[in-house]
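General statements about sequence and structure are easier to judge against a single worked case. No coordinates are needed to read the tokens, only the vocabulary itself. The sequence in question and its structure tokens are set out directly beneath this paragraph.
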Amino acid sequence: MTTPMHAKIVQFIELAGCTVKKALDAVGQKKKDDASIEAYTNSSIKKMAEEHLIDAGEEKRARELLSTHSGALSLLGNALDKIAELSSKYKEAQKSNRELTKRAASNLGRGVDNVGDGDLGYDSINDPVVGRRTSQKKASDVALAKGLGLVI
């Protein structure tokens, strides 16, 4: 059984209609994408100019670079390389800072008071300040050591 000619024509028209609809949808989506890309391109170029990543005369070149997929991916690759370089420098700086901090923390210094052998250096009993901090032996230290049977 063969299909009549008018039925084949109707099927062809239906198929052509579906094809045209899909093509128009694709064109509409392409226009939306182009508008979105243009907006992102403009904002990216403006941001690069504000951050002094490009000179004023380089805006046209940047627009050309961003207008193609390969150019945008090239720019993205360069940005990733720069981020990786800065990240390694940042990690090195952190490591160096940690080492400096450890070195500073381990250098506790020395006592300020100079004490002679067997010399108290000052009289804590007659000192008007009670509980004054000092690195020297106080009279109370000597009395406590005697009570414990220690020789200082």
About this structure: The chain is about 65% helix and 0% strand. Helices lie at 5-50, 59-66, 69-106, 139-148. Residues 30 and 36 are 10 Å apart (CA to CA). Residues 7-106 form one domain.
